[in-house]
Amino acid sequence: MDGKTLEQIRDTLLNKWRKIEKNSVRDLDHQEDLSFAHAEIIDIAQSLEQVGRDTSLKEAERRDLLAIEKALAKMSVGNFGVCEECSEEIPAKRLLVIPEARLCAQCQAYEEKQAARTRFYGISAR
Ligand SMILES: [Zn+2]
Predict the structure, then answer these.
(1) CB count in 10 Å sphere of residue 65
(2) Which residue of 44, 48, 81, 118 sits 20 to 30 Å from the alpha carbon of 100, by its own alpha carbon?
(3) Residue 27 CA, ligand 1 centroid: distance in Å
(4) 102 CA distance to ligand 1 centroid (A)?
């Protein structure tokens, strides 16, 4: 993946993060602190970590923020865009749509199928 694509994905992640932040009920002073237009990735990862522990956030929001945090952390260590299941590279096209994806499309589909089966039968068929 070239640097330009990576930057584009990072922007998408940050925009998503901002959107969730805006939707959640938070005091304005705190939000001022989180204007990270020029912040380094590592600072963002740190502030995201705090958000992850914020109990005022809804469960789904917290999960999203943590996924974004994880993706940003991966970017900072340079192993972003690799499937956690099969270690294959996740296509940039997929990451541009779902930047926080930790699995490639194939593994994601498999995992969802397993999850659906678990919900249906109450046990994992794996
Ligand atoms: Zn995979």
Answers:
(1) 22
(2) 118
(3) 40
(4) 9
Distance 97 CA to ligand 1 centre (A): 17
Please report, for the chain, the start and end positions of each structural domain, with discontinuous segments joined by +: 3-121
Distance CA 2, CA 6 (A): 6
Ligand 1 centre to CA of 85 (Å) is 5
| pLDDT by position in tens, the chain (length 126) | 888 999 999 999 999 888 887 776 554 444 444 444 445 555 666 666 666 666 667 788 888 888 998 999 999 888 899 999 999 999 999 999 999 999 999 999 999 999 998 888 876 555
Instruction: Look at the block and give the residue holding tokens 């740190």.
Output: 46
Is the separation of the CB atoms in 5 and 96 below 8 Å? yes
- CATH T-level fold of 3-121: Four Helix Bundle (Hemerythrin (Met), subunit A) (1.20.120)
How remote is the CA of residue 80 from the centroid of ligand 1, in Å? 13
Q: How far apart are CA 125 and CA 114, in angstroms?
A: 7
